[in-house]
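note to self: dont lose this again. the chain is below, predicted strucutre after it. 122 aa total, dont forget to put it in the shared folder this time
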Amino acid sequence: MGDNSNAKKVYKEVLSLAPNDGFAKVHYGFILKAENKIAESIPFLKEGLETGDPGTDDGRFYFHLGDAMQRIGDKEAYKWYELGHQRGHFASVWQRSLYNVNGLKAQPWWTAKETGNTELVK
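---
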């Protein structure tokens, strides 16, 4: 954890031995994107998610695949955001936070009463 340089070597080796390993693909793609190799990361993230292998259904991978696609102008990004939403990773296609609070309602505007701090808001 936190050592992308060595992790990259490990995942690259895993993929040389098991080229269809979805877990290795999403993690390798994640590392490539962290290195700002945006276009290069996309096939690994996409193919890894498509495998459905254990450990691939993670909001980080849906988020970073969609983000990478948006950065290169690929409109398919929203397909992945929608799928991430359907899988329960995002509050909506437009609210893609990976750090959600259970019970916190996702909405763009709150009335003073809904905040629970009516006097402070006034």
